[in-house]
Amino acid sequence: MDNVKIDMAFKEDNIKIGSRDSELAVKQAQQVMELITRPTELITMKTTGDMVLDKTLDKVGGKGLFVKELDQALIDKRVDFTVHSLKDVPMDLPKELPLLAFPVREDVRDVLVLPKGTTEHDLTKPIGCSSARRRIQLKRLFPHTEIKPIRGNLLTRLNKLDNSGEFGALVLAAAGLHRLGLKDRISRYFTIEEILPAAGQGILALQGRNNYQPGWLERVDHPEIHSCAIAERTFVRAMGGGCFAPIAAYARIEHDLSILLCAMYAIEEKNYVCYASSSAPFGEAEELGKRVAKDMLCMLNDAGMVIPNDTDAQDEDIQENQ
What we know:
This protein is an alpha/beta fold. The protein has helices at 23-33, 48-51, 57-60, 68-75, 132-141, 154-164, 174-179, 217-220, 223-238, 285-302; strands at residues 15-20, 40-45, 81-85, 99-105, 110-113, 127-128, 147-148, 169-173, 186-189, 203-207, 247-253, 259-267, 272-280.
């Protein structure tokens, strides 16, 4: 018996995965759970941000409202990991709760969705969109159409579009519609040049505790997606972090395995939009993000623009992807 080795993997309890309780959040969690080669259990919960629907995010506390219950569940060890849409994750995370893996990236583009049963975009009605990043780019594409805020998760917004008669269209992330099997609702895909995506758009992230990082995490993580995520989030963090200013960042791996990062920052009250891009070797994602931010800040300074101190540096429409 002394020579018998017991594989403790078979003695482990189910890995508990935490998620918000919306249909899309559950789909996203299940997509990541399928990649984990261990028994898993899904634990869902409603966050504070899910319950506040009558105010815009800048009035109620931003992205932290959508993750704090999940963070607390990790701290209390009620769950082992949580799954998030990366663009919804605050830039400043508790040190003890790092992002550990980036397994999946869906289509990064934004899309136009029309009311069910219609084929023509009614430009006399507002386009529903609560993201300043989208809003400022949409103004160039639809200069004579009102851009109006809309809150709620993706399915709630689609219901408002279809039944309220208030909106002529919505602009949403393709990723959420794809994950819910709703590609047929998409009327138009905007190109990256038309609407630059948010940092982390389409990426699913696995968050955990810094003192529990089992070996199988390396097999779940996707190195190319990981590098893109680091480049995009480093840029946003170097520009100030946060939630509410119009900012965009999109990285992709080129044929020569270099990383190309394209970014945008806007001063909306000045109607000023600034773009910057650069590339770097595959292993220098963080350095790339910092360099593009430095270039962006120099351009803003040369134009006499100052980043407002009372706004954070990433705006996104969080509930849509949940």
